[in-house]
Amino acid sequence: MNLKVSEEFGMYFARIPLKTSPKIVHGNALTLDWNEVLPAERASYIMGNPPFVGKHYQSKEQKADLVAAFHGMKAASDLDFVAAWYIKTARFIAGSAIRCAFVSTNSITQGEQVPLLWSLLLGQYGIKIHFAHRTFQWSNEARGLAAVHCVIIGFGSFDIEQKTIFEYEHPKSEPHAVVDGNISPYLTFAPDVVIEKRQRPLVQVPRMTCGSKPSDGGHLILKQEEYDELVSAEPLAKPFLLPYVGSEEFINGNPRWCLWLADVKPEMLRRLPLVMERIEGVKKFRQASSAEPTRRAAATPTRFFFQSQPTTEYIAIPEVSSERRMYVPLGLLPPNVIASNKLYLVQSDSRYLLGILQSAMHMAWIRAVAGRLESRYQYSGTMVYNTFPWPSCSSCTASGTDAPADKTRQAIETATQAVLDARAQFPGASLADLYDPLTMPPVLLKAHQKLDAAVDKAYGKTGFKSDAERVAFLFQRYQALTSLLPTEKPAKRRGKSTKATV
Fold it and tell me: Domain map of the chain by residue range?
């Protein structure tokens, strides 16, 4: 090794055998007193790759260590295991010039985890993010270990003038560095704003709800082959079999059906023995459940466990969508298409509402604040729709809704209809086909660009150069809107307390 080093650098090196050695402590980093390992005043850097364990996959011991690291704050149990290293580090480095960096699961910079973790790091401990690598895919060569989606966050308890974000066009690409003034907890160049989930929208727009949930053991839901068999055997059942659409069916077009029996008369059901068998299956499944609400629902086996089906045309938003798409595809569905709990819906056929939600402005908000499944977008009514800063109400419509003046509104409606018309030119294509970045028809892309321009104008802005500019603008608008509102009481959490001194 000495010879190889000498050859590489052109000088003589005699460094092996090593004459000095580091002090290595082997133990549980969350229960050790770090000052006993190395006093903070002697430390310069803290870095590492803490374990990647999501909240649903932690052992009892890991969950206990996580909650203990947050001084008993039970809401911490909703965080990824990595978060415990951040809070313990924040206490250790308080008031020092120590620089830190951790490889982490990307979920701590997304969705509901951000207010839980970063409100404390920013507000109580004065943490500032110095640099960050946005989501990238890290593959492990060990057999049987899947690739994970990571971020790297560099931080300290002091500020620096210039911060750097390393951007990835997609999770497997090489990064490029971008320098600016402040990195938010969402790893965007924006103020240190934490988006708190809300039970109501920021402005006066229709409520968003989740689609209907069957909790049926699969007895009310039918694949195409099962539908064909049932209709062939019991033709009288056909009027009660309706299209059933979740994220997968909405985007990819794969058909599924459901038995929608809410208003079917008993005498009709008794003429359908195969349907009655399925109803009996629902009843038995619910009776065997460990959840009391599901057992109670066994008394009404002809109904979905949770029903929220609109009675008019409605806006549908898939819960999960690929991050590869420039736009998460939204659309309008008729009331006889049953939305599953994998769709979010707004009971309105307003082209204005649909246009805002389908715009680049809303897409930027999704990319910034939505949760993720791996790297796919995971939409949420409370975290995305209800927090979204809509255009200002400088000249509200006669209906009293928060919306721009009629001329701007009409421009958005016209542009939205043009997007729908462009899609209609390709009747054989699924939304997955239409919104794949490699196959998106030019006429559809052009229609979206006109819609984006109309929505930008509603915000009084034009010429955004990037998503980062949009996000910074939206965060400022969010701050302005929330500063005018009374503090919303958090939703009650069954069996969990969010009160703690940290």
Answer: 40-180, 195-209+314-487, 212-307
Architecture of domain 40-180: 3-Layer(aba) Sandwich (3.40)
Cα–Cα distances (Å) from 427 to 106, 112, 280, 433, 443, in that order, read: 37, 38, 39, 11, 14
Give the C-alpha separation, 149 to 147, whole Å: 7
User: pLDDT digit of tens for each residue in the chain (502 aa)?
Assistant: 888 888 888 888 887 787 777 888 999 999 999 999 999 999 999 999 999 888 888 999 999 999 999 998 888 999 999 999 999 999 999 999 999 999 998 889 988 899 999 999 999 999 999 999 988 888 766 555 556 788 999 999 999 999 999 988 776 778 899 998 899 999 988 888 899 889 999 999 999 999 999 999 999 999 999 999 999 999 999 999 999 999 999 999 989 999 999 889 999 999 999 999 999 999 999 999 999 999 999 999 999 999 999 999 999 999 999 988 999 999 999 999 999 999 999 999 999 999 999 999 999 999 888 887 777 888 999 999 999 999 975 433 334 444 557 889 999 999 999 999 999 999 999 999 999 999 999 999 999 999 999 999 999 888 888 887 888 899 989 988 887 666 665 555 444 433 332 2
Whether the CB-CB separation of 275 and 236 falls below 8 Å is answered with no
Report which secondary-structure segment, H or E, holds 361: helix 360-369
Q: Which residues sit opposite 156 in a β-bridge?
A: 128
Residues 6+ apart with CB under 8 A from 113: 78, 79, 80, 83, 107, 371
Task: Note whether 107 and 372 are within 8 A (CB).
Answer: yes
Q: How far apart are the first and last CA of the chain?
A: 50
Rounded CA-CA distance 353/205 in Å is 8
Residues in Cβ contact with 235 at an 8 Å cutoff, skipping those fewer than 6 apart: none
Tell me the whole-structure pTM to 2 decimals: 0.80
Q: Where are the beta strands (DSSP E) in 143-220?
A: 148-156, 163-167, 176-180, 208-210
Longest dimension (CA), the chain: 96
Distance, CA of 123 to CA of 141 (rounded, Å): 39
DSSP β-bridge partners for residue 345: 209, 316
Tokens of 303: 């109904």
**CA dihedral of 182, 184, 188, 190, whole degrees rounded to 10:** -60
The C-alpha atoms of residue 73 and residue 75 are separated, in whole angstroms, by: 6
Sheet of 338-339: strands edge to edge?
221-223, 256-259, 241-245, 338-339
SS3 call for 259: strand
Question: What does residue 225 show for φ and ψ, rounded to 5 degrees?
Answer: -65, -40
Collect all residues with Cβ–Cβ distance below 8 Å to 388 and sequence separation of at least 6.
201, 202, 362, 365
3 state DSSP class of 378:
strand
